[in-house]
Structures are given as C-alpha cells and as structure tokens.
C-alpha cells in the first residue's frame, strides 16, 4: 500500500505543479486579473503635473482602475481626484488619503497605480520629482444606470 500512496502523492504533486506553472505564465494585474486591452492604460505623457519640469512624466505601462463591486451593485457613481508623486526614479506614490464617501473609489486608483511604470519628468535633461493629478470618473452605463450628466466621461 505504501507504494501506491507514494505514486498517488507524486501524481498529485505533479498535477499541482503543472497547474501552478500554467497560472504563472499569465501575469496578473494588481486586482488579480489577467492583463487585457480593457484594463491597461494607453501609454503617454501624464498631464496635470506641478513642479519644475520641461518634459512631463511618461506612463509606459499601467493598470486602469476597476469599478468597486459594492458601488457597482448599488449603482453608486463618483468623480475622484487623486494626487500622486512621480519621483526621480519614476516611482509612483499616491498622496491622496482615502477618506470620506469616495474612499473605495480612491483606494481602487491607488491599487491600480501599483504596477505603473513611469519615465520621470525631466528639467534640462535631469530627472526631477513632480506632483501629478489623476481624475477618475466612475459612471454606470446601460439601461439600468442613471443617465450620465452632460460632459461626463470615463
């Protein structure tokens, strides 16, 4: 019986290793989902930055936020503004405290920023730290959702 148990245990370990290996081949975003076109931001210059710079920081790669599930189910909408710092190495550090009725929305922006790769802003060719603003609108779209206000976009 010991031999059969050892073979069964070995087969189980191999199956588990194969399953984990398959999962490891697809990277996951900070929300635990595979990256796809819908949850990745388009690369480009980051606007709304303050501080001395002649070239704005450039987002090379980054996750977009997800609509918080509880707010989605309850039909809640929000507009949030999040301040964040891009330092001389291109690291992104959220600065807005997640407080008040929009804290879940703000927290989701912070989570999305965890995998951002950013080229830092420069001043006369030297990297500099800047403070930037990200505006994020959360609106439900569809027949069950409230009618969006004029000029509202996600």
Write the layout of secondary structure elements.
Blueprint: H1 2-24, E1 44-45, E2 49-50, E3 58-61, H2 69-74, E4 78-86, E5 92-94, H3 103-112, E6 117-119, E7 121-123, E8 126-128, E9 130-138
Antiparallel strand pairs: 1-3, 2-9, 3-6, 4-5, 4-9, 7-8
Write a concise synopsis of the structure shown.
With 154 residues, the protein is an alpha+beta fold. 25% of the residues lie in helices and 25% in strands. The longest helix has 23 residues, at 2-24.
List keywords for this structure.
about 150 residues, four-stranded antiparallel beta sheet, three-stranded antiparallel beta sheet
Shape: globular
Low confidence ranges: none
Question: What value does the Rg take, in angstroms?
Answer: 21 Å
**Helix and strand succession?**
HEEEHEEHEEEE
What is the terminal-to-terminal distance?
A: 62 Å
- Biggest sheet strand line-up: 2-9-4-5
- Report mean pLDDT, rounded to a whole number: 82
The major pleated sheet works out as:
4 strands, antiparallel
- Estimate the helix proportion, in percent: 25-40%
Give the oligomeric state. Answer: single chain
Helix tally equals 3
Number of strands: 9
What fraction of residues sit in β-strands?
Answer: 15-25%
